[in-house]
Specification:
Amino acid/polyamine transporter I
């Protein structure tokens, strides 16, 4: 396979980038998986958490857009932070994204599998017990991950076309749910709307941090547009930056509305019982069978979409770090026909399937150790052991999802805050310029970065040891490939 031919430049425009950004955050999936968690944490203040976290995320958006002017780079945060603060900080910015993406493969594919099995049970092809079967859920999850990996490997154009179709269908279904909810329950809400839902005085420091850390998971994924910068039209950062901006605007409005919809339709008990099927619970109260199962379909499509964008984000970041020899150069290989980083793409597939089965079946350490043939492989082993240990204390799918969402939120805070600090420092000379320029280039990104650090630290003290093991331990594992790769590089130089 050739390493000389680059990525497929000129493949994506503003529309495709915006669709990728929206799909990256996976509206239906995020609501389905995260709503029960955030409502259990902060109740009706979930609306305010989503609102304020959206404003915080806009600061990070401005940081990404401004740093993207430096260069359109497949590594995005890794490249920009490295250019501003040095290669080690850049490495860990990229590593934070890589680890979050790997853990996400477990938390994303499980809802896709359970929703798929639910649809199959309605069709009479499987029974209800199958939906709760660890074997069935794990195998269907692996199948979805494999199918999406094949689509992504075949080229960015194929991925963008698939994403556009999935997003349109998903949006139509969710829009029907929103309209139906306000028509049916606007006059008899389960939770009467109140200004207290969004009032900053309703929050304590702890509840605000807890709600924000969970709400960050709603917004995570839009930054995939920046990782696809080298594949946008014209070779300029404009399409990816514009796509990121419009995807964030749409996501913020959508999430505020859909969380309100969930609260006015469902009681606290119904939300808790729905678990990862919140949208289906809403649809079941609005529409007769079998139309209510369209909500399940929207969750499946959304999940597939976000798995696709996470594979894209992981593979481009790993490709960029490998291309710069920060990680083993084998991951920078480009397929000569499809123009995709095929080795990096297969790596996220392998990691996802491996950790999926690890969290479900507790395979022997030896099996994982046998896979450890490189610096990344050694890290896989440590991640596997970490999840093996966690899995022995996480007997239910809900527990696994809750822990992984919290851990991912911590890692998101880490790498995105680095981008915010990098932007503020890089453009510090603009401090004496116009107020608007200073606001979007320095103050807003800086405040957002500082707040992300604050909620990450505060929440870490409230995490149980297993969540900290996954969240913080996953970041610390980055020292292993970094040091091993540095030693290999020193040997080659000597």
């Amino acid at each position: 396979m050739s390493q000389e031919k680059g990525l497929a430049g000129g493949s994506l425009g503003t529309l495709e980038s915006a669709v990728m950004g929206v799909a990256g955050s996976a509206p239906a999936f995020s609501v389905a998986v995260t709503t029960a968690v955030i409502v259990a944490s902060v109740g009706v203040l979930s609306v305010g958490s989503v609102l304020y976290c959206g404003l915080i995320m806009f600061g990070i958006l401005f940081a990404f857009m401004n740093l993207n002017k430096m260069t359109s780079h497949a590594g995005a945060t890794y490249a920009w932070v490295g250019a501003v603060f040095g290669p080690r900080w850049g490495f860990f910015a990229g590593w934070g994204l890589l680890v979050a993406s790997v853990i996400f493969m477990v938390s994303a594919t499980i809802p896709a599998a359970t929703s798929t099995l639910k649809i199959l049970s309605v069709m009479g092809w499987v029974d209800e017990a199958t939906i709760e079967s660890t074997t069935w859920v794990t195998c269907v999850s692996a199948i979805w991950l494999t199918l999406v990996t094949i689509i992504v490997s075949k080229g960015i154009k194929h991925a963008s076309y698939a994403q556009l179709i999935l997003t349109v269908i998903e949006s139509i279904i969710v829009l029907a749910l929103i309209i139906g909810a306000f028509v049916e329950y606007g006059s008899k809400p389960a939770h009467p709307p109140s200004f207290a839902w969004v009032s900053p005085f309703s929050f304590s420091a702890e509840t605000f941090a807890t709600g924000a850390l969970t709400a960050i998971f709603f917004y995570w994924g839009w930054d995939v547009t920046m990782n696809l910068g080298e594949e946008t039209k014209g070779g300029t950062p404009a399409p990816s930056s514009k796509g990121a901006f419009w995807s964030m605007v749409n996501l913020m409005l959508f999430y505020i509305i859909i969380v309100i919809v969930v609260l006015i339709v469902l009681t606290d008990e119904e939300i808790a019982q729905a678990n990862t099927n919140v949208l289906y619970a809403v649809a079941e109260k609005l529409f007769p069978h079998p139309w209510s199962y369209l909500a399940v379909l929207s969750t499946v499509l959304s999940t597939i979409g976000t798995i696709e964008t996470q594979i894209l984000q992981f593979s481009r970041t790993l490709f960029a770090m490998s291309r710069d020899r920060v990680l083993n150069p084998r991951y920078s290989k480009i397929h000569p026909e499809w123009q995709t980083p095929w080795v990096a793409t297969l790596t996220i597939w392998f990691l996802g399937v491996m950790l999926l089965f690890a969290s479900s079946y507790l395979p022997s350490v030896k099996d994982i150790l046998d896979k450890s043939i490189s610096a990344i492989g050694l890290t896989i082993w440590f991640l596997g052991v970490m999840l093996l240990f966690a899995s022995s204390y996480l007997p239910s799918v809900k527990d696994i999802l809750d822990k992984s969402i919290s851990a991912i939120g911590f890692q998101i805070c880490f790498y995105m805050s680095l981008a915010g600090f990098a932007c503020a420092w890089y453009y510090r000379a603009m401090l004496t310029g116009s107020f608007l320029t200073a606001l979007t280039h320095i103050w807003w990104p800086l405040f957002s970065a500082m707040f992300m650090v604050f909620i990450a630290i505060l929440s870490a003290f409230s995490f149980d040891p297993l969540t900290n093991l996954i969240g913080i331990g996953g970041l610390l594992l980055g020292f292993i490939p970094m040091l091993l790769n540095q030693r290999s590089a020193n040997k080659l130089q000597s």
